Amino acid sequence: MTIREFYAALEERLPRSLSWDWDNDGISCAPDLDTPVTGVLIALDPTEDAVEAAIESGCNVLLTHHPMLFRGLKTVDGRDTGSRKVIRMIQSGITAMAFHTRLDAADGGVNDCLAAALGLTNIEPFGDNANPAGKPIGRVGDLPAEMTADAFVETVKTALGLPCLIFAGCGKPVRRVAVVGGAGDDDIFAAAAAGADTYVTGELRYHQLCDAPYGDINLIMAGHYHTEAPVLARLAELCAEICPEAPVRVVRTTLVEVR
């Protein structure tokens, strides 16, 4: 299977119609789309370490959630991380492709995987921030049984492999939970409108956390990386289904640590 065919098969399952207009996902670097796929390296972020891992493992496809070229390049001279990645990938014959906002919204994507990781059932879409196809990115669902907020915080930490998180409670126990992986600060009111007593996302604003004790919904800020990383295993399964002859490797890309 060529890289071109591999991307087309992925796009059938994750169509561009689910992407926001401002997004720059898809193929961002393609030295030769008609070469056979030798391996797929999957990461949340197209960092320099991810590029080097692809080279070292013999993978000529770097598949990520976040796009490699999001705001564009002004120069390609190797003096900044963006241009160094482009140079290395072209020299090494590696194609970069990303499925960003479409993977947030897709069935079985970022937010379905996050909801499943937290043990939610009866999962359904929610949110005001629907994409051009009219599909909201958020998911809301129910826990099997009501929990105290303290117990649910520990559940989130264990499920997502977190040493800590930021919690701002409103005093409610936890039973119905809304999730948005990554930056979900625009969807608090929509989560509450969907009947959630608790909202889990990656990033929130300071004033939103300060206001939570006086509001109607518990807020949990669990980190951009950790709330989106559960989808990586699903991406690996999808790649193995599409191109079973090519090895698939998943790597962790965040170098930011809580100490």
CATH architecture of the largest domain: 3-Layer(aba) Sandwich
% residues in beta strands = 15-25%
Report strand order across the widest sheet.
5-6-8-9-10-7
Report the sheet with the most strands, covering strand number, pairing sense and barrel closure.
6 strands, mixed
How many domains is the backbone divided into?
2
What is the end-to-end distance? Answer: 44 Å
Number of strands: 11
Content-based structural category: alpha/beta
CATH homologous superfamily identity of the largest domain: NIF3 (NGG1p interacting factor 3)-like
| CATH structural fold name of the largest domain | Udp-n-acetylmuramoylalanyl-d-glutamate--2,6- Diaminopimelate Ligase, Chain: A, domain 1
Shape: elongated
Low-pLDDT residue spans = none
Task: Describe this protein's structure.
The chain folds into two domains: 3-102 and 230-250, NIF3 (NGG1p interacting factor 3)-like (Udp-n-acetylmuramoylalanyl-d-glutamate--2,6- Diaminopimelate Ligase, Chain: A, domain 1, 3-Layer(aba) Sandwich), CATH 3.40.1390; 107-221, NIF3 (NGG1p interacting factor 3)-like (Udp-n-acetylmuramoylalanyl-d-glutamate--2,6- Diaminopimelate Ligase, Chain: A, domain 1). The strands form two sheets. A six-stranded mixed sheet has the order 5-6-8-9-10-7. It has helices at residues 3-13, 48-57, 81-92, 101-105, 110-117, 149-160, 188-193, 206-211, 224-228, 231-242; strands at 26-29, 40-43, 61-64, 95-98, 121-126, 138-147, 166-168, 174-183, 198-203, 218-221, 248-250. Helix content is 34%, strand content 22%. With 259 residues, it is α/β, with parallel strands linked by helices.
